[in-house]
Amino acid sequence: MIKHIVMWKLKDHAEGADRAANAARMKALLDGCIGLVPGLLKLEAVIAQPGLEATYDVMLYSEFTDKAALDEYQNHPDHVAMKPFFVAVRDARQCMDYEI
């Protein structure tokens, strides 16, 4: 099993919207990836809660059966299509993939 975790810190304003609106759009786009490929076991997108200390704004936690399933997800047209928006609104990105 491969776990794929990504965190984004967003710009205050980008793509004509503020940080909160862009975070909500990112979450909606990520939620749309649930069940995108057969080897995707779990996908959870979350937005940092106001009032709690957080250094990133949006986080994705996902699990895949194997690296081939993760690769299929990464290259799926629906996933690729949302990347330009993510690049435009992010200030920083961290990713970690690990096998268990």
UniProtKB/TrEMBL annotation:
Pfam families according to UniProt: Dabb
Signal peptide (residue range): none
SUPFAM superfamilies: Dimeric alpha+beta barrel
PROSITE patterns linked: S_R_A_B_BARREL (PS51502)
Residue span, Stress-response A/B barrel domain: 2-98
InterPro entries referenced in this protein's UniProt entry, alphabetically: Dabb, Dimeric_a/b-barrel
Name of the protein this chain belongs to: Dabb family protein
Organism (species): Rugamonas aquatica
